[in-house]
Design brief:
Structural class: alpha/beta
Strand order of the largest sheet: 2-1-3-12-11-4-5-10-8-9
CATH superfamily of the domain at 1-110 and 265-361: Isopropylmalate Dehydrogenase
CATH architecture of the domain at 1-110 and 265-361: 3-Layer(aba) Sandwich
Number of helices: 13
Distance between the termini: 24 Å
CATH topology of the domain at 1-110 and 265-361: Isopropylmalate Dehydrogenase
Bound molecules: nicotinamide-adenine-dinucleotide, 3-isopropylmalic acid, manganese (II) ion
Shape: globular
CATH class of the domain at 1-110 and 265-361: Alpha Beta
Radius of gyration: 20 Å
Number of strands: 12
Helix content: 40-55%
Largest sheet: 10 strands, mixed
Strand content: 15-25%
């Protein structure tokens, strides 16, 4: 059987800690796969900048193109976030470069409630219990990449520009896949925009409606303004199935939704490219959280998001929903037994948690 080539980019801060834990889980489940997994490691983010002066090397980009999937930890930190490096977002962030150059336009961020002590989320238990939603974030356009952008000097006056840009085709392909994802879940999409104030929002809403009418009439669709959606997310999270949002709104909505899951350390993600002729897609899996400099190096980060990202890889890149479910159930059981990392009010270390998950597999 053909080997599965995985490029592992642990990155910065807690990235290497949670990725090591996630690889332990992958190693434990690998015998159940019918393909051998070959793992290559490389630097990304600040770690790469210190060694090579760039946040991602061309060689790494080439490795990424030749891989079946990428497992990414986290990147960034106080020393690297504001270096004002020329060349736009892909020069400033290895992750942005990977997303853009691999055309990983679809960022799937599932969020659910977990068996946690009631006081571990800011919500009443009956409000979040059963919540199970997915933020589908457009990942390669919008204000993250629009031109013109920059900080400009006019004598002693400086100004800064970012551009919120969407091409029709970029909205269409995100909507298509979001409806497909919803059709596999509970069949409901809530599309988010600011069509009341933004031109991109107007086009967004129009195209989502067209794609819905033309291809996915069986999926239920509603629209919410982004501000109202954030309110609804904390007021009644159980009403959502798939939330379709642009790059920036999706970023904000998913961190907010992490409060429903109990911690940023509980949110995995998959970033997918367009379907290729052989039916596969370029894919990058990573926790939604960042490098968490405040707790890095202590071995106390919650590895669940990274572990669940491996689960998403088993499902989406290896076609093994059964194994993905096994990983998710193991995480669920470990939490239910009260084995909790510090972000969830417990005292389990990263390795304690990962070892318990492996034991449950
Ligand atoms: P963050 O997600 O790193 O941390 C926010 C808070 O959540 C911190 O208090 C942190 O300790 C906590 N937290 C996050 N993940 C956790 C985990 N797994 N277990 C326990 N606690 C966890 O966001 P930030 O502080 O805004 O950003 C820190 C750095 O990470 C910045 O450089 C930022 O640019 C970068 N960042 C990277 C990514 C990424 O690589 N995908 C995502 C977000 C932020
Ligand atoms: C995320 C992060 C990134 C983003 C940063 C690190 C570029 O916040 O993956 O959610 O804003 O997309
Ligand atoms: Mn984010």
């Amino acid at each position: 059987p053909q080997q599965f080539r995985l490029l592992c980019l642990p990155g910065d801060g807690i990235g290497p800690e949670v990725i090591q834990a996630a690889l332990g889980v992958l190693q434990a489940i690998a015998p159940a796969l019918d393909r051998p997994v070959e793992i290559t490691h490389d630097l990304a983010g600040g770690a790469c900048y210190e060694a090579h002066g760039v946040f991602l090397r061309d060689e790494t980009m080439e490795l990424a193109r030749q891989s079946d999937a990428i497992l990414f930890g986290a990147e960034g930190g106080p020393g690297w976030d504001n270096l004002n490096i020329p060349g736009g977002p892909t020069a400033r962030s290895g992750l942005s470069r990977l997303r853009k150059e691999l055309d990983l336009f679809a960022n799937l961020r599932p969020v659910r409630s977990w068996p946690l002590p009631a006081e571990q989320t800011p919500f009443r238990p009956e409000l979040v219990s059963g919540a199970d939603l997915l933020v589908f974030r457009e990942n390669t356009s919008g204000i993250y990449f629009g031109e013109p952008r920059g900080i400009f000097e006019h004598g002693d006056r400086r100004h800064a520009i970012d551009t919120q840009y969407y091409a029709q085709g970029e909205i269409d392909r995100a909507a298509q896949l979001a409806f497909a994802v919803a059709a596999d879940r509970r069949g409901k999409v809530t599309s988010v925009d600011k069509a009341n104030v933004m031109e991109t929002g107007e086009l967004w809403r129009e195209r989502v409606d067209v794609i819905h009418r033309t291809h996915w009439p069986q999926v239920e669709l509603d629209h919410l303004y982004a501000d109202a959606c954030l309110f609804e997310l904390v007021r009644a999270p159980c009403r959502f199935d798939v939330i379709l949002a642009d790059n920036l709104f999706g970023d904000l909505l998913s961190d907010c939704a992490a409060a429903i899951a109990g911690s940023l350390g509980m949110l995995p993600s998959a970033s997918l490219g367009p379907e290729r002729a052989d039916g596969t897609r370029a894919a990058l899996y990573e926790p939604v959280h960042g490098s968490a400099p405040d707790i890095a190096g202590k071995g106390i980060a919650n590895p669940a998001a990274a572990i669940l990202s491996v689960g998403m890889m088993l499902d989406l890149s290896l076609g093994r929903k059964d194994l993905a479910a096994r990983v998710e159930n193991a995480v669920d059981n470990v939490l239910a037994e009260g084995q909790l990392t510090r972000d969830l009010g417990g005292s389990a270390t990263t390795n304690d948690f990962a070892n318990s998950v492996v034991a449950k597999l």
